[in-house]
Write a structure and sequence with these properties.
The chain is an alpha+beta fold. The chain has two helices and ten strands, in the order αββββββββββα.
Length: about 180
């Protein structure tokens, strides 16, 4: 019975612990499309306050602009955005919005995030952004006729091989 109770406590506290870090919302964008995402940042070292956040985009993801929440200032330097001047206290969470354009292969690409506290401590996080293939007019051109030609060539090679093997099996063996 004690094991079951401990398991219930673990299951109920795990989601809260998993959510206690810098995350990206929404967690996905389309390749090649300018998108606005937000770095959702909780203060998790109460009684200390979060006084800074710095995020660096992975290669292939361009930072187009960054907004500062009320009381904060933002600064862009290449692929890095820094927010300072504000104070995140208690157990509250703040969204730090950024407009980006991802020009990378589909998949998950990590942003490096560093959260700074009023006592000088820093905590580093990796916040994953999923990049989806572009759709519609932004999608890369497809060349279906190349695939059809390759399929026909493959069938011809397989058919020719089967024909030659059958013919070779039917030929009589010469004894000499």
């Amino acid at each position: 019975m004690k094991r079951a109770a401990a398991l219930v406590v673990l299951v109920l506290t795990f989601p809260a612990a998993a959510a206690a870090h810098v995350t990206i919302a929404p967690p996905f964008v389309q390749d090649g499309i300018e998108s606005t995402i937000a770095f959702q940042t909780p203060n998790e070292r109460s009684p200390h306050a979060t006084v800074g956040l710095r995020v660096t985009a992975p290669p292939g993801v361009a930072v187009d602009s960054a907004k500062a929440p009320r009381g904060w200032t933002s600064k862009i330097s290449g692929s890095t955005v820094s927010w300072t001047g504000g104070k995140l206290t208690g157990t509250s969470t703040v969204d730090f919005p950024v407009t980006i354009t991802a020009k990378v292969r589909a998949g998950t690409h990590p942003f490096a995030a560093t959260q700074t506290y009023d006592d000088g401590a820093t905590v580093k996080w990796n916040a994953g952004l999923s990049v989806l293939p572009a759709t519609g007019s932004q999608a890369p051109k497809q060349h279906p006729w190349g695939a059809v030609a390759a399929a026909v060539a493959g069938l011809l090679v397989i058919g020719g091989s089967v024909f030659l093997l059958r013919r070779a099996r039917r030929a009589p063996l010469h004894e000499g």
